[in-house]
Amino acid sequence: MHPAEKVLGPFIENAPFALAMFDREMRYLCVSRGWRKDYGLDDRDVRGLSQYELFPEIPDRWREFHRRGLIGETLEEDEDRFERADGSVQWVRWQIRPWYEANGKLGGIIISAEEITSRKRAEEQHRVSDELYRGLVQATSDIVWRGQVVGGYVDISAWSSFTGQTEEQARQGWLECVHPEDRGKVAVAWQNFIRNGGAYKQAYRLRGSDGEFRWMGVTDVSLREKDGSIRLAMLRNG
């Protein structure tokens, strides 16, 4: 066992995140439980095995990062795509640091990695959902207002065009555009809607940018997140 491995080995092996120590030939010296879990090594004894033999799918650019680490550079990446041999894709945040022997000679590198695949998938789902929503807004001539559970807006471009309210005004008091005689029932219905979700239809008078009130048929639909919070889509038809 290498002297450096004796010192760093217990820390690396018991680390809760993915961590691995390599020599100058990119052979494993020790790995953490997190590394074994993330890369499917289970209880396999990998000491002395080459990283490139275990994972031949490692891209050339990563091999270049390893080479740079082995000449003394410290490198890191917040989001990096790793295409596995079985066709699956992992997203990883990683850091490479060189380690040194007692005489000051570079002994190899230590790689820490955090798998962020679930987060990247969630971000992609939200991106696609947002693009579909914006496409709906652009394709319809109706007023579409999407908000959060507390009633905050997300996209109110059509609302602003119709009512004349600015972004901040809509945040602070979109109910001011509702006719005074209708405002009470609308406020109660809205609070009930954002609390319980579901869907409902209403009709009330809404003030336009010209100051005139017009009757609007309103269809409200709620969408819930996994944590129970509600994303709201309001479609107002004139």
Quickly count the domains. Answer: 2
The secondary-structure class comes to alpha+beta
Mean pLDDT metric: 80
Biggest pleated-sheet summary: 5 strands, antiparallel
Key phrases:
Beta-Lactamase, 10 strands, single chain, five-stranded antiparallel sheet, alpha+beta, 238 residues, 8 helices, rod-shaped
Descriptive overview:
The chain has two domains: 3-115, PAS domain (Beta-Lactamase), CATH 3.30.450.20; 126-237, PAS domain (Beta-Lactamase), CATH 3.30.450. The longest helix is centred in the middle third of the chain and has 23 residues, at 117-139. The termini are far apart. Strands 2-1-5-4-3 form a five-stranded antiparallel β-sheet, with helices on both faces. It is an alpha+beta fold and 238 residues long. 36% of the residues lie in helices and 33% in strands.
Topology summary:
Blueprint lengths: L2 H11 L4 E6 L4 E4 L1 H6 L12 H4 L5 H10 L5 E9 L5 E12 L5 E10 L1 H23 L3 E5 L5 E3 L1 H7 L3 H7 L6 H17 L2 E9 L5 E12 L5 E8 L1
Antiparallel strand pairs: 1-2, 1-5, 3-4, 4-5, 6-7, 6-10, 8-9, 9-10
